UniProtKB/TrEMBL annotation, chain A:
Protein known as: (Fe-S)-binding protein
Pfam families: Fer4_9
The keyword Iron-sulfur is annotated on this UniProt entry: yes
Keyword Zinc-finger: no
The 4Fe-4S ferredoxin-type domain, residue ranges: 284-314
Segments traversing the membrane: 6-26, 63-87, 107-126, 147-167, 205-221
Keywords: 4Fe-4S, Iron, Iron-sulfur, Membrane, Metal-binding, Oxidoreductase, Transmembrane, Transmembrane helix
SUPFAM superfamilies: alpha-helical ferredoxin, Respiratory nitrate reductase 1 gamma chain
PANTHER family hit by this protein: IRON-SULFUR-BINDING OXIDOREDUCTASE FADF-RELATED, IRON-SULFUR-BINDING OXIDOREDUCTASE FADF-RELATED-RELATED
Top-rank taxon, per record: Bacteria
Automatic annotation (TrEMBL), chain B:
Keyword set, alphabetical order: 4Fe-4S, Iron, Iron-sulfur, Metal-binding, Oxidoreductase
Oxidoreductase listed as a keyword: yes
Pfam families assigned: CCG (PF02754)
Family annotation (InterPro entries): Cys_rich_dom (IPR004017), HdrC_iron-sulfur_subunit (IPR051460)
Native organism: Marinifilum caeruleilacunae
Coiled-coil annotated residue ranges, if any: none
Residue ranges of domain Cysteine-rich in the record: 23-109, 149-236
Descriptive protein name: (Fe-S)-binding protein
Amino acid sequence: MTKQILFLISLAITLGVFAWSVKRLWAFFKLTKPSYPIRNIGARISHTLDIAFGQTKIFRKPVIGLMHALVFWGFLVITLGSIEIVIDGAFGLERSFAFTGWFYDVVMASGDVFALLIIVFIKAFSLRRSIMRIKRFSGVEMSPKSYWDAQIALSFIGLLMLSLLAFNVGYISNHPNGYEGVYPVSAALVNLINMDLGWLQEPGWWIHILLIFIFANYLPYSKHFHVFLSVPNVFLANLEPLTKYPNLESITKEVKLMLDPEAAYDESEEVSRFGVKDVQDVSWKNYMDSLACTQCGRCTDVCPANITGKLLSPRKIFVDLRKRMDEIGPLAVKGKEDGKSLIRDYISEEELWACTTCNACAQECPIDISHPNLIMDMRRYLVMEEAAAPAELNAMFTNIENNGAPWQFSPEDRLKWTEG
Amino acid sequence: MTDKKLHVPVMADLAAKGEKPEYLYWVGCAGAFDDRYQKVARAFAKILNHLEVSYAVLGKEESCTGDAAKRAGNEMLFQMQAMQNIDVLNGYEVNKIICTCPHCYNTLKNEYPELGGNYDVINYTEFLDEMIQAGKLKLENNPFKGETITYHDPCYLGRGNKIYDAPRNVVKAVFGDVKELKRSRSFGLCCGAGGAQMFKEAEKGEKEVNIERTEEIIERKVDKVASACPFCMTMLTDGIKLKNKETELQNLDVAEIIEKALEL
C-alpha cells in the first residue's frame, strides 16, 4: 500500500510537470503560423511505417543506422513493459500484462535482449561522441551544452536499461518455482552469478520507473525531445516532391489584382509580412521540426555549401529556430518584444544565400525536415520586405521582368538556337 | 552535325493553320540563350524531328518559368511569370509539355497546377527512355566505342522528382554501362548552381561546389560525364576547364548522346 501511494505521488508529480511543459510549448506554438493541411491519412500512415518504424532513412548510413534502428525498436518493445509497470504501480499489481500469454513472452523476451543490446550501443554512441572526432558532431551550432545534452540523455537510456535488467534478474531470483514471461539475458545472468539476487527486484523496479519519469520531464528541454516528437513529425511530414516549394497565396491575390484591375480588393486579408523574419512568421510545422530535431547533423554532412566551407549549416537553421523561440517565446506570450529577430541575430544573410536548394539535407533528414523551404521563406522576407537580395540577383530579377529571361537577351531572339 | 537551320514548328504558326501539336517542347531560357546548351536544345529538336513527333515550341511567346526568381525569394515575380505563361499555355490548350531543363520541369509540374496550369509535364529523359523501350529509337551505332561514361544526377530531376533510372537507361542504351559516382542517385552532390546560385557569385568558402563535384568525376577516371540539366552543364564544363582536363573528359547532355548515336 505504501508502495502504491508513493508511486501514485511520483506519477502525479511527473504528469503535473509534464503538463506544465506542454502548456508552455503550446503557447509557443500558438505564436506560429498555419502550415499545409494534413490530409491523406492513409498515405501518412504508410509513410510513417516506412520512415519511422521501418527506419529506412536511418539506414542510409548502414552501420550506425542499424544500431539506431535496434535501439528504436528496442524502445518500442520496452515501452510496452513501461506501461505495464505504471499499471502495476498504480494498482498494486505484479506483471499485470502476463495474461496476454505468448505475446507477453515475446515482448518480455525481446525487451530483455534489447536492454542488453541498447546498453552496448549506448556505450558505443557515447564513446563515439567523446573519443571519435566525427565531423558532423562539430560546427558552431554544436555548443558544449549540446554535447552534454547528448551525454546526459545517453546516460539516462543506459541506466534505464541497467535498472530494467536488475529488475528482471531480481524478479527471476524471487520466483525460483516459475515466473511470468521469458527473460533470456536476465535468466543467463542469474545462472551465471549464482548468488541471491532477489533484493534487486524492488530497487530495480523503482529506479527504472523513476528514471523514466525524470527522463520524460527532461526531454522537453533537450534535443532528445526527438524521442517523443520524431514519429509524429514523420507522420505530419510534407509528402510533396522535395523540390516543390509552395506558392504564397497572399501573393497570388496581389498578382491577380495586378493582372486584373477589376478584381475586388479584400482588405480584411491583408498579410502582416511576406516570408519569415522571426519565429512568429514560421509555421507550426517548422517549429515542431526544430523541437523534433536531435541535431544528428546528417543534413549538414551532405550540404554542398557546408562541404565546401561556406557558413551555411542546415542543422543550424533549426537549432537557431528553437533557441530563438526559447528566447522570445516567453516574452511574446506576454505581448512583449526584444528588438531582435531570427534573421541577422541568429541566422546571417550569408548563410541564407549560400543554399543551392539541392535538397540533399531534406533527403537525408531521418525525420523529414525540409530545410531549403524554410531558408527560402527567409529569402522571401529579405527580398520582398527589405529588397535586400545580392546585387547580382536583383539584376537577374530585372532581366526576367524586362526580357522574360534571367539573362539579358531579347525575347525576339528566342528562336536563334534553331538557326545554328 | 551541320550548322544548318533546324525546322522547329512554332505554336503560333500551327495555330494560325488551325493545327494543334501533341506536345509542346518547353525550350527554357538556357536552351534559347546559353551558347553551350543551345546545342542540347538543337539535339533534342533533331531527335523529335527524327521521330516525326507532332510538337511545337512557343518561340517568342515562351518566358522564364520563374524558378530562379522563386528560389531567390521573389515570389511576386515568380507568380507574375507563372500567370503569364499559364495564360499563353492555356490559350493554346496545351496538354503535354516536354522539358529539357529540370528546373523548368519541376516548376511547371509541381508549382503551376495550383496557379491554374494543369499539364502533363514530361522530362525529356523519360520521353527518350520510353521511345527506346518502345523500339522507336533504334540505337545500333555506338560512336563512343571503347569509351566510359558516368552520370551526374541533377538535383531537381533526382531528389526533387525521383527521376533516376530514365537518364541512366538512355545513356546505357548507347554506352552499355554507366560508371556510378561515389555520390550518386539520391546521394548525388549538387553542381552548385541551383536555388539561383547560377546567377550570383558563391559565398565565401574553401572551394567552389562545382570543383568538389568535378574532382569526384575526375577521380572516377571516365572519358565522358553525362548530365541532364543546363545549370549542371555550365558548372561541370567550367569545372573541367578549370581543372585542365578538357582533353581527357567531356561533358555531354543525355540528348547529345542520342543525337550522336543516331548521327543526326
